[in-house]
Amino acid sequence: MVKCRDGEILNNVFSVLSDPTRRAIITQLAKGEMTVMKLAEPFEMSLPAVSKHLKVLEKAGLVSVRKEGRFRYFYLNPASIDCANEWLTDLRQFWTSQLSRLERFLDQDTTYE
């Protein structure tokens, strides 16, 4: 079980997601599990380079792998993304509340004669 309030998990997730290639790999994996060969097709980089990105994603808990024969299939592991989403949702609730309070304040009739 992933502890979503763990700052290290959030740091890892956001650090890993800061790379556009890794975000693109995650987007591809959202369509279903894939091999390194399939994942590498849209990129102008070597298979070892794609494998390095996958290792970083796996270490951060965003991607998991299953082996079938000589093939390794990568797939999304939503637990880490769920943690980031939970943190962002809490932050959104805070800012929505703050903006609502500001809106109410600005809507008050504050004109004095």
TrEMBL record:
GO molecular function, one term: DNA binding
Keywords: DNA-binding
Residues of the HTH arsR-type domain: 2-96
InterPro entries reported for this sequence: ArsR-like_HTH, HTH_ArsR_DNA-bd_dom, WH-like_DNA-bd_sf, WH_DNA-bd_sf
CDD domains for this protein: HTH_ARSR
Protein name: Transcriptional regulator
